[in-house]
Amino acid sequence: MGSLRSSAQAHDLGHLATKPLAANRNHSSRRLLRHFLVQAASRDRLVQVVGTVCGIHAQIAQAAELSLGLRAAGVTAADVRGEVWERRSLVKTYGIRGTLHLLPAAELPMWMAAMRARGALPTASQLAWMHLEPAQHDAIVTAIGEALDGRCLTREQLGDEVASRVGSWALERLFPAFSEMWPRWRGAIGGAALAGLLCFGPSQGNKVTFVRPDQWLEDWSEVVQGDALAEVLRRYLAAYGPATLQEFAQWFAVGPTAALAAWRRLGDDVIEVDVEGYRTSMLGADAGPPQIAVRDSLRLPQFDCYLVGGHPRDALIPAPAPSRARAYAGSWVKTARQARVVLAGPMPVLLVDGVVAGVWRRLRCGKRVVVRVEPFVPLTNRSTREARGGSNAHRPDPSSIAGSFAWAHSLGFGSGCGSGSRCRVACTHKTQAGWRHKRKRPDARRSGSLT
């Protein structure tokens, strides 16, 4: 691992400036193990898994379910939904970096307190973007809490309730988001979640609903903000370490002052380590002999937490992945840094020895669903077998999430669906929903070329 030193000198942000690091198999193995990606946890530990990995990104419901299916053996989509909507042991809310997350219900007060500890949010620039004054933002947050008191409301119903309390200006569509204009009040939804006044309730058809978490959940006990942020840092280092202070700050979207205060609260529990010339830190309790993983490769869905929180990015996503990824990510991706952002977020990836070594996509060819894995590096026989979901004798139960992922699709390697000239469709990207096919034009069908 390298030399170990006290972290007392590691509190200066500049002291831990990012420097190049070659991919280190020992640390990748440790992270894979901590993320239950080598040995899945038992089914009854589903909620514990979510807490251990610091939450599951839930912007895309199917991707969240797959992330959990890879980490908890035998878990089905019905199990995940049951924990969220029936047993309420998991909660869906606006979490880290303002994105949707699944978090353990018992830990929700801690996570919200930690996010409030980041300082004044939203910032002045964010308020300007949402066309809100600070007083208007605070008024909307208060109105949301009042409107949800004892009630479960759809987004439209909540907007009407907010406007009835603060004024019709809250419904003005001035807030640009996702290629459309949202009503101004929606800019304060995240603030209401951080205040402990809002989380998601069970959907009504295709409409989302919101409830008060202190009423939806069995228990709600406020946590001291500074203590909460320090606990989040401890958990981050346990799941993603070794890591620098800047890497934690980037993952949690926290400013340097608050991050440094949390780091100091951990004191000597954090030690500095030198990994091939790269100065970083980890929990002293984790500084034992390196653990070696045994699983060569696996497929991760979009926004999997292993990649979103993993650093340094140039080690986690080494060459040639960034340059190869540009062909799949769209014309806006022009630099290696932008490509790494895509590979650590909206693009499903193939991991080999804990680092990104390819991408995969789902294609529908008539009634067939095909998974195509496109590796960026040559794969060993073992890696190929693992990418396919393991040998037939060791694949998981096909009724589980992981099992359906391994069994339900025809899987191949390379681009296209594998049908060659017999295929009358071509793959095109469908935003946030996997992949689809587009019919060829008549002339293309005759010539055998793809559109």
Number of strands: 18
Strand content: 15-25%
Kindly state the percentage of residues in helix.
25-40%
Number of helices: 20
Looking at how many chains there are and whether they match, the oligomeric state comes to single chain
Q: What about the largest sheet?
A: 5 strands, mixed
Summed over residues and divided by their number, the pLDDT gives a mean of 81
Trace the largest sheet across and list its strands: 12-13-14-15-16
Question: Rounded to an integer, what's the Rg over CA atoms?
Answer: 23 Å
Shape: globular
Low-confidence stretches: 1-24, 416-451
Key features of this structure:
disordered N terminus; alpha+beta
What report would you give on this structure?
This protein has two domains: about 1-120 and about 220-295, no CATH class; about 295-445, no CATH class. Helices cover about 35% and strands about 20% of the residues. The protein is built from 20 helices and 18 strands. It has helices at about 25-35, 45-50, 60-70, 75-85, 110-115, 125-130, 135-145, 155-165, 190-195, 215, 225-240, 245-250, 255-265, 305-310, 315, 320-330, 335-345, 380-385, 400-405, 440-445, and strands at about 5, 55, 90-95, 100-105, 155, 175, 180-185, 200-205, 205-210, 270-275, 280-285, 295-300, 350, 355-365, 370-375, 410-415, 425-430, 435-440. A hairpin with a 2-residue loop joins strand 6 and strand 7 (about 180-185). The longest helix is centred in the middle third of the chain and has 16 residues, at about 225-240. The radius of gyration is 23 Å and the shape is globular.
